[in-house]
Amino acid sequence: MSDPMSQLVRKNVRDLTPYQSARRLGGCGDVWLNANEYPTPVNFSLTQQTLNRYPECQPREVISRYAQYAGLTPDNVLVSRGADEAIELLIRAYCEPGQDTVLYCPPTYGMYSVSAETYGVQTKTQRLTEAWQLDVPAILQQIDSVKIVYICSPNNPTGHLLKAEDIRQVLTATAGKALVVVDEAYIEFCPQASVVSWMQQFPHLVVLRTLSKAFALAGLRCGFTLAQPGVIQTLLKVIAPYPLSTPVADIASQALSDEGLSAMRARVAELNAIRDTFIPRLAELPCVEQAFLSDTNYFLIRFHDSPAIFKGLWDQGIILRDQTKNPLLGGCLRVSIGTEAEMESLYQALTQFGPKGARQ
C-alpha cells in the first residue's frame, strides 16, 4: 500500500537512497567488526546535575579543551552532533540548492553525497586512482562550479592516507573559490598526518574531527569542525540552538582532559598493535586474495569469493562490512579492529574457508 502522504515529500528526498549505516544493516552476532568502533566500553561518570537548564550552544570547556588538543584557539572550533552534522552544516551554510556543487572522491564516506542530495545540492565525483589516491588533474578539470570539496584522509573505507602533496594541490587550486573539507575522523591513528597546521596558509581549509573512534565514544555523537573564525561564525548561524546535551558535553570534556587524552593514546597504541599483528596473518589464508595495510582502526581484505565469506561469517555471528559495490573495491570486505580475542575468532573462522570460499 502506497503512502498517501508521499506526494507531499520533496522530490529529491523521495528519490534519495539513505546512507546504510552499520546499525541499519543489522545482523545478529557477538563479534561486531563492521562499524569502526572501539570494541569495549569506556567508563565515564556524569558530573553535571543541571538537566533542568538548557545547555550552552557551544560548551566552553569542551571547546577550550579541544582547541588546546588540536593546537588552535577556541574561535577555530565548533562542536556538533558528530562530524555528520558538520558535513551537513557546511552544505546548508555555503551551497545554493540547484546552483552549487559538492565534489567528493569515491570510494569514500557515503554521507557527503547523502547530505548534498538532501538539500538539493548537486554532486560531482572523481574516482580515486587505482592506487586509491586523489586524481588531482581530473579534479582540477571540474572544480569550476564546485563550492565544497570533501576529502577523507585517512580514507574510509580504504583505510589509507591520501598524499599530502595532492591535498595541497587541491587547496592551492581552490583558493578563493571553494571550501576544501578534510575529514580526519581517524587521524588519531596517524596524528603526524593531520593538515590542521595548514589552516593559516589556506583559510578555506576546514577539518572535521570526532570522538567516535579513538576516543571510544561513538554512542555520544560528538564531533568538531576546525576552521578559520569566519567559517565558524557562519556555521553558528545555521546550527541548532542546543546541539549538545548536558551529559554529552560533560563526558566530552572528561575525554579531552589530560587523563582522557592519555587513555585515548593508549587505546590507539593497542588497536594499532592488534591491526599490525593480524593483517599479515590474515593475508596468508587460502581464502584471502589480499589484506591491505591501513593507517586506521580498520582495514580491507579482498577475498576470492567475498559473498560466500561474508555470509559464512555472518551466519557464525561475525559481522563485517561489505564494500564490494563500491568502485575499485570488488571482492573487498572491511574489518574493524576488535579485541585480540575477537580478531582471533575472525582468523579461526576464516581458516575454515578454501580458496573458492567454500567451507573446508
Automatic annotation (TrEMBL):
Name this protein carries in UniProt: Histidinol-phosphate aminotransferase
Pathway: Amino-acid biosynthesis; L-histidine biosynthesis; L-histidine from 5-phospho-alpha-D-ribose 1-diphosphate: step 7/9
PANTHER family per record: HISTIDINOL-PHOSPHATE AMINOTRANSFERASE, HISTIDINOL-PHOSPHATE AMINOTRANSFERASE-RELATED
Gene3D superfamilies in alphabetical order: Aspartate Aminotransferase, domain 1, Type I PLP-dependent aspartate aminotransferase-like (Major domain)
Superkingdom, natural source: Bacteria
Enzyme category, top tier: transferase
Gene Ontology terms for molecular function: histidinol-phosphate transaminase activity; pyridoxal phosphate binding
Aminotransferase class I/classII large domain ranges (all copies): 32-350
EC number annotated for this UniProt entry: 2.6.1.9
Modified sites of kind N6-(pyridoxal phosphate)lysine: 213
Subunit relationships: Homodimer.
Keywords: Amino-acid biosynthesis, Aminotransferase, Histidine biosynthesis, Pyridoxal phosphate, Transferase
Keyword ATP-binding: no
Pfam family, one: Aminotran_1_2
GO biological process, one term: L-histidine biosynthetic process
Catalysed conversion reaction: L-histidinol phosphate + 2-oxoglutarate = 3-(imidazol-4-yl)-2-oxopropyl phosphate + L-glutamate
Cofactor section: pyridoxal 5'-phosphate
Homology family: Belongs to the class-II pyridoxal-phosphate-dependent aminotransferase family. Histidinol-phosphate aminotransferase subfamily.
